[in-house]
Amino acid sequence: MYKRPLSAARHATSVDTTKRAKMSVMQEPDPRRRTNLLKIGMRQCRYIVSDDPRRAVCCGAPTPEGSSWCDWHRRLVYVPAQPVRIRRDALTS
């Protein structure tokens, strides 16, 4: 059975702990800010939180400059692209 070196295990744990700490710092948007889609203003989150598609209710929380979603909802839907690694032997064939 293969075991990871102790240093690698510690690194993985510290990354997980850091990630958890960062997520716990960010708070879910206040539900009192929710706004009907047709009444949403500038710099308000447009993430639809209602279950009924005929009654589109948006989050309404403040958004950063140039974004349609607040930080909370952006984190839920946006997954950063992973770098592509190309094997050298694949390039020669």
Automatic annotation (TrEMBL):
One Pfam family cited in the UniProt record for this chain: GcrA
Protein name: GcrA family cell cycle regulator
Chain intervals for the UniProt region annotation (Disordered): 1-32
Cited InterPro entries: GcrA
